[in-house]
Design brief:
This protein is of the alpha+beta class and 276 residues long. The protein folds into 2 domains: 124 residues, MutM-like, N-terminal (N-terminal domain of MutM-like DNA repair proteins); 128 residues, Orthogonal Bundle (Helicase, Ruva Protein, domain 3). 27% of the residues lie in helices and 24% in strands. It has 6 helices and 13 strands. The strands form 4 sheets. Strands 2-9-5-4-3 form a 5-stranded mixed beta sheet, with helices on one face. It has a 4-stranded antiparallel beta sheet with strand order 1-7-8-6. A hairpin with a 2-residue loop joins strand 3 and strand 4. The mean pLDDT is 95. The protein binds zinc ion.
Length: 276
Amino acid sequence: MPELPDLEYLREFLSSKLVGIVVNELKVLGPIVVRSSDPERFSRQLKGRRFKDVKRRGKYLIFSFDSGALIVVSPMLSGRLHYRKLGDFDSRSRFFLSLALENGMEIRYSDDTSMGRIYLLDNEKALSSVPKFVKLGTEALDPMLSAGKFSSLAKHFDWEIKKVLTYQALIAGIGNAYADEILFDARVNPFRRSSTLTMEERNRVYTSMRKVLTEAIVALRARVGENINIEIRDFMKIHGRGGQICPVCGSRISEVREEGRKTNFCRTCQPGTLFT
Ligand SMILES: [Zn+2]
């Protein structure tokens, strides 16, 4: 599932490729993930327009055009963007949207679970119609989110600390995988209730949040290149490594599944029983 670092890399890459480029054609290949009042009209009006900007907010990417129109992409579990020469795509992927560009390139969106959403919006005002978008909390890397502010959020919401990190209306951008990485780096058990963390522990989580996300963006910049549809996670230390050896202490990495989500952590490095 693409999270802040993945989407931040995508934003940088696509900004460098798209800003100023004219769209020749927008095609809806699978309506199931596309939300639009009138996709045909949207497509007609987008023809010949230029990309103005690519932005990210939380786990959404926002493409804007010189006409004022916007395309908002929420990849959810398995949404992927592809950037290739026109028509040069792997036919095994399930594609839902295509944008053919004047320079012979094409962007497509694929989604194997169809859980993602693409919103075709006439203007910025229509962003209010995107569910959950207007309720997004502070960006995890926002300079305004100080250690003190983070600490008071964590103290106020008496949830498991992993939920504090991943609840998008509080802090935007972190999902299941990076939350595990952050809590491992901070040596804090993901199931600890946030109100039971000491000030020092809350500060550690904050510092690890900034560090893990920033380092991941740097790692992805060096690794992903033009194959933006491939999710690179092999540099993760704990997430997706259940049953393997903890790189710090040598214990086996634990895995807990709840509500279809996997949490990986080390019981030695991140002590604390469940639900305390
Ligand atoms: Zn360990």
